[in-house]
Amino acid sequence: MKFHINLLEEFGAHLLTGLVSQGVEMLIEQIEHRWLVAFERTFALCKVQPNEVVALLTESQSRRVNVDLARLALQQMGAKVFEVCLPTPALSAPAPIRSTGATDVIQHLAPVVAALQRAHLIIDCTVEGMLHAPELPTILKGADGVVPRLFMISNEHPEILERTVPNPALEGVVRNAMKKLRSAQHMHVTSKAGTDLNIKLKSAVVGGVWGFCSKPGMVSHWPGGLALAFPAAGSVNGTLVMAPGDVNLTFKRYVRDTIHLTIENDTIVRIEGQGVDVDMMRSYYQAWIDKEGHRDACAVSHVGFGLNPAARWDAMTFYDKRDCNGTELRAFAGNFLYSTGANEVAGRHTLGHFDLPMRHCSIALDGQLVVQEGELVKGVFESAAS
């Protein structure tokens, strides 16, 4: 018996040594004071008040340490907290669903919707998030004189959240970027890799996130720091070239192969290139085409750009896949974010979704450069406030 125990201990030591040698840090999920402080700082920006009613929306697969940190921080601030925890639903899709922002955990349950409508603030700790969930518009209408605001905590390890505690100054930058998107008629995206994409912004719905929400009816998420537009149907045409180092957040993977995407009337009609990245993208899209009988999963969902200087492009390198949801990489300053999947503005609904942050792109709005080769053009968004 002692021999077997020693053998297991030796095996465990070799396994740990192997993981360390590969650069995999064994992060522990537990309550840490520094993470509690980060949650309190962020909730303070959300204007949490003593005796304010706050709902924690969770599911059985939620990252429990974030739920516990949120509850403790809110209680420390004097809020009246209750939790609505729902079973994570069975899979209904042909492939794993990641990176959608559209949790299906509520399942249109009227008592759940009614409870959330009466909270002043909803802390969303579901795995996929409520940003595009079908129940959200009804919830935000409120009830009994209360109009809730919703704050999604991305399904990240708390260390990532600690590094990306929102900066109040980011609100002005994002608001200015949203104004420019709303006033523009055309977005042109180019890159030395070969991207040449034309996007009509007429009738697009513009949104933005700075990482906290302080007013009734608002929706935000942490990490934050991006502005985006949901184009109307038939608005996007051209070529999108993903180069090594660009990111496929659905796969939580840095692209190593060059991928040429031809887009006609919003929809990717050709995926060209060689390598595993190309094969995986084709395979995932085909799963949704076969399941749904249409190509909505291949059509544009939203386009936009990151504005957060504290968010890092290389962050995913430092975390195991289970520790990282990748929201930070949607927000790193200067990225062009191209996403495919559901787009209510264009009348398309699908669970198939790709978020594809790209580096080194230039973005022009009505001919004015706002991002040049992956760098925010200095003064463009700051000067808009004057």
Description of the structure:
This protein is α+β, with helices and mostly antiparallel strands. It is 26% helix and 26% strand. The chain has 9 helices and 20 strands. It has helices spanning 2-21, 33-45, 64-76, 110-117, 136-141, 158-163, 170-183, 276-292, 327-331; strands at residues 53-59, 80-86, 121-124, 149-153, 186-191, 196-200, 205-209, 219-222, 226-230, 236-242, 247-248, 253-254, 259-264, 267-272, 300-306, 336-340, 354-358, 361-365, 368-372, 375-376. The strands form 4 sheets. The chain has an 8-stranded antiparallel sheet with strand order 14-13-10-6-5-18-19-20, with helices on one face. Strands 2-1-3-4-8 form a 5-stranded parallel sheet, with helices on both faces. A 5-stranded antiparallel sheet has the order 7-9-15-16-17. Helix 2 (33-45) packs across helix 3. The longest helix is centred in the N-terminal third of the chain and has 20 residues, at 2-21. It is globular and about 55 Å long. 45% of the residues are buried. The model is unreliable at 1-23 (pLDDT under 50).
